[in-house]
Amino acid sequence: MSGGSDHGGDLVGSVLELEVGEVAHGGHCIARHDGQVVFVRHAVPGERVRAQVTEQRRGYLRADAVEILRVSPDRVTPPCPYAGPGRCGGCDFQHVDPAAIRRLKATVVAESLIRLGGLSAEEVAALNLVVEELPGGAVQWRERVQYAVDPAGRVGFRRYRSHEVIPIDRCRIAVPEIQQADVTSRRWPGVSTVEVIAVPGEPVTVLTRQRRHSSRGMKVVRGARRVRRSVLGREWTMAPDAFWQAHRAAAERYATALLELLKPRIGERVWDLYGGAGLFTATLADAIGPTGAVTLVEVDPRTEAERNLADLPQARVVRGRVERVLAAGELGPVDLVVLDPPRAGAGADVVAAISAAAPRAVAYLACDPAALARDVKEFRQRGWRLATLRAFDAFPMTHHVECLALFEPRDSAERHHGADRASIRDD
Ligand SMILES: C[S@@+](CC[C@H](N)C(=O)[O-])C[C@H]1O[C@@H](n2cnc3c(N)ncnc32)[C@H](O)[C@@H]1O
User: Fold this and answer.
1) Which residue did the predictor score with more confidence, 421 or 379?
2) Most-buried pick from 251, 369, 381, 392 (CB within 10 A)?
3) Could you tell me the distance, in angstroms and rounded to a whole number, from the CA of residue 343 to the centre of ligand 1?
4) How many CB atoms lie within 10 A of CB 343?
5) From the CB of 278, is ligand 1 less than 6 Å away?
6) Whole-structure pTM over 0.90, yes or no?
């Protein structure tokens, strides 16, 4: 330790000199101080830094790199003036070259699969994991932005692990229409959040909420009351606060990747669990044709899935919680399953119900690699293998990464290998 005030055992505020090791899930790197783990933000693996301790917990510390003593070749000047220690907590890696950020995310996914998913290093290496870049670059990609509002009515983003709002002029990772919308220069008294949504060719929508993440008290103050989007030649309309992918290019990329992985066949039966407005249902309905069937399960009526899919007779919407619908056994036989659960993942009961239905393949889209890894473990314990894993940099500059996993029954792989061996013998 160098410098560092003595807080009578309380290290918060002290400055430590640290060797920065590997990246860890959550937007920080790992270092050690007196045998304790230190989660260091604003650093890059391989750097030597002076880092100020921001939090002391039983068994670990959190710290911000405030001076870089040995600089990584992957370090860059952040494009955003609000990035950095003690400032906006929205982006984790503005100080890292975008290609290097993707490599850090690949490391996090791989580590999660080993630590939480039970895969060996060899099994992970066999997946040849790369985090794929989405079109549009590292900034100006976010199609919806939710600002917090400070007591003076100014909008901004929260400081990392704090309720304090850092007012901003514009968010550099938002699409240009959001950056140019006259929102940050105004005061917003009496509301807790202001959300801005910008879809190409549509007027910008601005909505306010009395309470964060609540649809109660949601008010559209500018733009249309329903948002219209166009993806892969189809139109979607939904409530502005219904779920849609944040990255402008994500919906199309995921739908295309899903077809590449699942290779749906004419006449197959599909479940689209946590289906939202029906992006994947529509894509798969086209692929399986009118003799097939896709059942979408979704709890939130704001996605308006029924109306968005009304022209597809092979698509059906079941309203309810996936856990309950699967437990009730309402969905009938299935060949392919798609699931795209919220951040916490699907969980053991949902995985067990999917496994019991014995589809020929399962495609799982996940926005949290740790939650995915826990569910990978559940699938593997039930006789499934992780056949393919793709990952997308759908949240550039942040630590977030989207993964698309393909599971196949292990015995089908064994059947393939058995068939290969049989044909070699036949030769
Ligand atoms: C990550 S989004 C995916 C939506 C859709 N696949 C898409 O790409 O547009 C997750 C969706 O699951 C829904 N949801 C969350 N928990 C659910 C549950 N327990 N049962 C059913 N739907 C749920 C949310 O309302 C949301 O629309």
Assistant:
1) 379
2) 369
3) 10
4) 10
5) no
6) yes
